[in-house]
């Protein structure tokens, strides 16, 4: 344990991320699944093509297959003439050969006959008695043709380990005859809600009770990031009760999230439970961020365990900033070569925002489009209010070395 909130200074954001990055977590398991089920899964093997795609040269247009040299110098006022000797059928290998002065009718996708090296579109020709046509446009070799292996060549690397599979990837794999692939198993993440005041959403409120928001919010965040949430239920603030359910969760899941019990006080048991369950125990407790300062991060014999604050906004920030990167490691997903995230945009701030020095602040924003330029409008509220999350499109970060941001500043928005 590095710094206990209330027993020392909360550690800086960068230091907390560094500690997580240097912690060894259990590697994800692998399974083989059929092609139709791979979309959104993380590839656990590199895939190269065992064949050329296409495996024959084919036409990209309806027209006539011919030799390009028969059209050199052609214009609409100075046409050339070729004889149509046959027709290509879809799915059939042409049995004839195209010689100088000859052509064959061919459909889009049809196999280019031997001797031909270009395709003349129908609209650039016209009949000229019998089997002859007038050629009204000059062609270069390869015009309107996809050559053998031009899409994917035999032996070429197609997809890499750690790649998140998309619909187009499914199509490419089908095209080269791959019917099943190795993927990483989706990590199961246990969500444990704690607090004597927490009740299920289906029950009417009584006195100082509050409904369970965080386990549902976390379930959605996990689903959107390739994990399988397992909501374990709501448990009262009792050490033995929580210790028992966390012990079971560590054995049956690849990550454990505990909401509540992370701030210093008489009911703060999460850190003690993590330390008792296994090594290395608590990695840090307390980060100089707002919201989310009381966050606990730990590891129990390779399984990451997080103790999250009870406020919904703090839970979301903790997930986006800390948990998501650890979860990515558990799913096996690798970042793209550019190192950039697809859910990040740039926008102009619509108003001034103040910030406390030596603390990283996260501010919810709504994205506005004014005359084609994007603006970030702060959605200011206290961390216990779920409605602020509903209204927001994303979050911006004010670094610890700044006292705030000014209206008109360009900011980076991490979209939800």
Describe what you observe in this structure.
The chain has 416 residues and is of the alpha/beta class. The protein has four domains: 13-29 and 186-331, 3-Layer(aba) Sandwich (Molybdenum Cofactor Biosythetic Enzyme, Chain A); 35-53 and 153-184, Molybdopterin biosynthesis moea protein, domain 2 (Alpha-Beta Complex), CATH 3.90.105.10; 58-146, Molybdopterin biosynthesis moeA protein, domain 3, CATH 2.170.190.11; 344-415, MoeA, C-terminal, domain IV (Beta-clip, Beta Barrel). 18% of the residues lie in helices and 31% in strands. It is built from seven helices and 28 strands. The protein has helices at 13-21, 167-175, 214-223, 239-252, 270-277, 312-331, 387-391; strands at residues 30-34, 47-48, 58-59, 63-66, 80-87, 102-106, 118-121, 125-127, 132-135, 145-146, 157-159, 180-184, 188-194, 198-199, 210-211, 228-235, 255-259, 280-285, 289-290, 296-300, 303-308, 344-349, 353-354, 360-370, 373-378, 394-398, 404-405, 410-415. The protein has a six-stranded mixed beta sheet, with no helix packed on it. α3 packs parallel to α6. The longest helix has 20 residues, at 312-331. The radius of gyration is 31 Å and the shape is elongated. It starts with 12 loop residues before the first helix and ends with a strand.
């Amino acid at each position: 344990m590095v710094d206990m909130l209330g027993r020392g200074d909360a550690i800086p954001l960068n230091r907390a991320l560094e500690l997580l990055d240097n912690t060894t977590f259990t590697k994800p398991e692998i399974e083989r699944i059929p092609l139709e089920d791979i979309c959104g899964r993380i590839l656990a093997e590199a895939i190269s093509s065992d064949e050329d795609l296409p495996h024959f040269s084919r036409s990209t247009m309806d027209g006539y297959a011919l030799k390009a040299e028969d059209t050199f110098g052609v214009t609409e006022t100075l046409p050339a003439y070729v004889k149509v000797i046959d027709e290509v059928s879809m799915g059939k290998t042409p049995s004839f050969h195209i010689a100088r002065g000859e052509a064959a009718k061919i459909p889009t996708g049809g196999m280019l006959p031997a001797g031909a090296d270009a395709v003349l579109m129908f609209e650039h020709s016209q009949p000229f008695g019998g089997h002859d046509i007038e050629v009204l446009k000059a062609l270069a070799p390869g015009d309107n043709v996809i050559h053998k292996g031009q899409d994917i060549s035999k032996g070429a690397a197609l997809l890499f380990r750690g790649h998140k599979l998309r619909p187009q990837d499914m199509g490419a794999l089908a095209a080269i005859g791959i019917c099943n692939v190795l993927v990483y198993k989706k990590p199961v993440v246990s969500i444990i809600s704690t607090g004597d005041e927490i009740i299920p959403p289906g029950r009417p409120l009584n006195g100082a009770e509050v409904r369970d928001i965080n386990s549902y919010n976390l379930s959605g965040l996990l689903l959107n990031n390739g994990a399988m949430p397992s909501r374990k239920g709501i448990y009262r603030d009792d050490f033995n009760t929580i210790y028992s359910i966390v012990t079971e969760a560590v054995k049956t899941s690849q990550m454990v999230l505990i909401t509540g019990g992370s701030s210093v006080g008489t009911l703060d048991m999460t850190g003690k439970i993590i330390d008792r369950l296994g090594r290395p125990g608590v990695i840090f407790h307390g980060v100089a961020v707002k919201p989310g300062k009381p966050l606990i991060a730990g590891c129990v014999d390779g399984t990451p365990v997080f103790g999250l604050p009870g406020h919904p906004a703090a839970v979301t920030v903790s997930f986006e900033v800390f948990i998501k990167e650890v979860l990515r490691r558990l799913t096996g997903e690798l970042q793209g070569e550019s190192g950039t995230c697809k859910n990040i945009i740039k926008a102009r701030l619509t108003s001034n925002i103040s910030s406390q020095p030596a603390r990283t602040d996260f501010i919810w924003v709504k994205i506005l489009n004014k005359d084609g330029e994007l603006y970030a409008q702060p959605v200011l509220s206290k961390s216990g209010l779920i409605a602020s999350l509903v209204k927001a499109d994303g979050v911006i970060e004010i670094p610890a070395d700044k006292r705030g941001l000014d209206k008109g500043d360009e900011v980076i928005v991490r979209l939800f």
